[in-house]
Structure formats: structure tokens, C-alpha cells
Amino acid sequence: MAKGDSDKQPQQPDQKTRSIKVKMVAPSVPAEEIYVDGVAGCMGRAGVIKLDCYRVLGFDKENENAEVRCITHRLVLPAMAIPELIQTIKGLTENSGQSSKKPVEGPVEGPVEGPVEGKDKPN
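The structure corresponding to this sequence follows.
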């Protein structure tokens, strides 16, 4: 490497202060929604995080009215998405009572704070 070449390479920002330019576009069809009652647990391995989501099936009257749960879905995300997920949840809790959805007229440039919906959303 020639002297001064290191000046030409872009510096990677610190993980805590990392900011990426994001462009969100409206999907051609509405995003699929899957309802779950909660998250039973999470695990991380090989650069991914897995969230086990459950549904409540009922209550077991023979076992002190214990809630009967069943894992129905596993959400798998890259480990690098964890800070974004945490920031999104923080924003949701800080703005409780306010909608985080913003209607989109066209492509969105820059940071996106919440889900993006197309203007032709079916009723």
C-alpha cells in the first residue's frame, strides 16, 4: 500500500454512532401481518438473533389456571439489526399514543422512523 492510500479509504463509523443512509419505498402489496401474543424467548447464534413468538391457546384449569402457550413463529434477524430494533421499540414507547405510521406519496429518502405504507392501502 502506497503512502497516503489509507486516507482514501472511507472510515467505518463506531457501532454505537453508526448512521446509515436509508431509502424506504412503498411495497406494491401490503406487508403480511402475523399476530402473536408475545415473545417466549430469544437466542443468538452465528450472526443472527431468533425470537420465538407464541400464541395463547387457552387456560389449564387443572394447573392453577395456567396460561397454555404454543410457539407459532420464529423471527430471525441479523445480529446487526438489534440496535435498530431497540431504537424502534424505544421510539414506540416514548411516543405511546401517537401513531408511528406515516403515509407515503412516493419513495422516502433519509432515515425512516416507523413503518412505511403505500397510498393505495386497501380498506
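The first strand starts at residue 23 and ends at 24.
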